[in-house]
Design a protein that fits this description.
2 domains; Immunoglobulin-like; alpha+beta; 5-stranded antiparallel sheet
C-alpha cells in the first residue's frame, strides 16, 4: 500500500510541468497596470494582487512538487542515521575542581620571604695582652702575616726610663713541628746576646743586654719566627717575660700573645 502511494506521488511530481511563461506574463501585466484607487468590490481582486496570488500559487505548486519528490526520495532511500562525534570535555585541573561551580580557581598562598634581622654584633678581636710595672709596659700578639705553615709572634716593650739591664724571653709551645726560622728586634743586634733552644717542650728565644750597654726610654720590639705543623696554630700556650733594671730599680712584666687581627 505504501509503495503504491509513493509511486503515484512520484508520477504526479514528474508529470507536473509549470507554465513559467504564462506566470511571468501575468506578473508583468500586474506590475505595468495602473493602480486602482477605489475600493474593489467584494469578491474581486486587483491586477497586482491577482498576479501576486498567481505567483504564490505557482510557488506553492512548485514547492509541493519538490516536497513530494523529497518524500519519495526519503521513502525510497535506506534509513541512514549520522551521529555527530562528541568531543570529550576537558578534565578540570585540580585547582579548578577544588571549589564549587563558579568559584575562581584557587591559587597557592604566597609565602612571605623571611624578614632579615640584624645579626648580633661580632666581638672585636682581642687586643694585645698588656702588662705594666713601674717604667715598663709590654704587649704580645701574633703577627697577622702568620700562615698555616709559619708564624711570627711580636712583643712590644716600652720604657719611660733608660735601662741598664734588660732580659727579654719569648717561649713558644711545641705544638708540633715548631722550629726556629729567625728573629729580629728594633734595638741594635750587637747590644744583645741571643740564644735560641728547645727546652721543656718550648722553643725559647732569649735576649740579654750586654754589660755597659743602655736601652733608651722609648718603644722597642722583639719577634720570634718559626715553622709548625700545617694548620691554624693556637698561641694559647705561648708566653713572654721581661726583666729590667733602671734608675728607679728593677721591674718585670710578663703575659701571653693575643690572636692576630
Amino acid at each position: 500500500m505504501n509503495d503504491d502511494i509513493a509511486r503515484r506521488l512520484r508520477e504526479a511530481a514528474q508529470a507536473h510541468q509549470p507554465d513559467r511563461e504564462r506566470m511571468l506574463a501575468r506578473v508583468q501585466r500586474g506590475v505595468t497596470a495602473p493602480a486602482v484607487r477605489h475600493r474593489a468590490r467584494r469578491g474581486l481582486r486587483s491586477g497586482p494582487r491577482a498576479a501576486l496570488a498567481g505567483l504564490v500559487a505557482g510557488g506553492l505548486l512548485a514547492t509541493g512538487g519538490l516536497a513530494v519528490a523529497a518524500i519519495v526520495a526519503t521513502h525510497s532511500s535506506p534509513d541512514t542515521s549520522v551521529v555527530a562525534p562528541v568531543s570529550p570535555s576537558p578534565s578540570p585541573s585540580p585547582a579548578e575542581s577544588s571549589g564549587p561551580p563558579g568559584t575562581p580557581p584557587s591559587r597557592p598562598t604566597p609565602v612571605a620571604p623571611p624578614v632579615a634581622t640584624p645579626s648580633s654584633p661580632r666581638p672585636s678581636p682581642s687586643a694585645a695582652v698588656q702588662a705594666q710595672n713601674g717604667p715598663l709596659w709590654s704587649a704580645g700578639s701574633v703577627d697577622p702575616h702568620s700562615t698555616v705553615y709559619w708564624s711570627q709572634e711580636n712583643l712590644v716593650v716600652k720604657t719611660t726610663q733608660p735601662l741598664t739591664s734588660l732580659t727579654v724571653e719569648l717561649r713558644f709551645a711545641q705544638t708540633g713541628g715548631v722550629q726556629d726560622t729567625g728573629d729580629w728586634r728594633t734595638l741594635p743586634t750587637d747590644d744583645f746576646d741571643l740564644t735560641v733552644q728547645q727546652a721543656g717542650g718550648m722553643l725559647v728565644y732569649r735576649w740579654v743586654l750586654k754589660p755597659g750597654r743602655t736601652v733608651p726610654a722609648a718603644e722597642h720590639e722583639f719577634a720570634g719566627q718559626f715553622n709548625h705543623s700545617t694548620g691554624v696554630r693556637s698561641a694559647t700556650g705561648d708566653t713572654y717575660r721581661v726583666d729590667a733594671q733602671g734608675p728607679g730599680g728593677s721591674s718585670s712584666v710578663w703575659g701571653g700573645f693575643a690572636p692576630a687581627h
